[in-house]
Amino acid sequence: MTKVILVRHGQTQWNLDMKYQGHCDIELTEKGVEQAMLAAQRLAGENISALYASDLSRALKTAECIGAKHNLPVTAVPELREINFGEWEGLTFESINSQSKDERSKLFTHPDEIIIPGGETFRQVKERAINAITKLVAQHPDQTIVIVSHGATIRTVLCAVLNIHLNHLWKIKQDNTAINVLEYYDENVMVSLVNDAQHLNGTLL
């Protein structure tokens, strides 16, 4: 069995400002670094063989905090990036709502049907992320690996593994530095943990 520990990055200022960040390279806040360190403490007892992350700094820094506990380098994988929000990147939820109310509404009610101006579809995100993870799993038979990615990307992966329609992806919560666990048994995949962020309130299970 290959165990994949899928982690969302820590907090950024744009998370606080409710801005779409997508492919914009926004760094962690001080609190985001603290969250990453708490996630690293949570995972300190895991026998991790390799560590991968999106090539955006908020994911890389989170992964580096985890890697420091295991003396492991981080390998950047661009396919693990957040969805490209195109023309919406850097804009707040409120400003998008005022300019493109119908499209923003569809983003949350029918995300599988939306085409973000200048950006990606959620199907494209799911395909690139799942393909990347499948390749990494093949490289690490019977090992445990950590993958640090982004909220929407992780949601699409969980939808793919659980065979959930992408229109339901926002029903899956992903807090900053949330831990998710996928277990790969040959052709079968089991989800054994979703959105575990107990480390942020000092509760380590």
Question: What can be said about this structure in brief?
Answer:
This protein is α/β, with parallel strands linked by helices. Helices cover 37% and strands 19% of the residues.
The name of the CATH superfamily reads Phosphoglycerate mutase-like
Order of strands side by side in the largest beta sheet? 3-2-4-1-5-6
* Oligomeric organization of the protein chains: single chain
Number of β-strand runs: 6
The overall average pLDDT, rounded, is 93
Alpha carbon gap, first and last residue: 22 Å
Which CATH class is shown? Answer: Alpha Beta
Total count of helical runs of at least 4 residues: 7
Largest sheet features: 6 strands, mixed
**Overall radius of gyration:** 16 Å
> Which sequence of SSEs, written as H and E, runs from N to C?
EHHEHEHHHEHEE
Fraction of residues in H or I helices: 25-40%
Shape: globular
Which range does the strand content fall in? 15-25%
CATH architecture classification name: 3-Layer(aba) Sandwich
| Classification by helices and strands | alpha/beta
Keywords:
single chain, 205 residues, alpha/beta, Rossmann fold, six-stranded mixed sheet, 6 strands, 19% strand
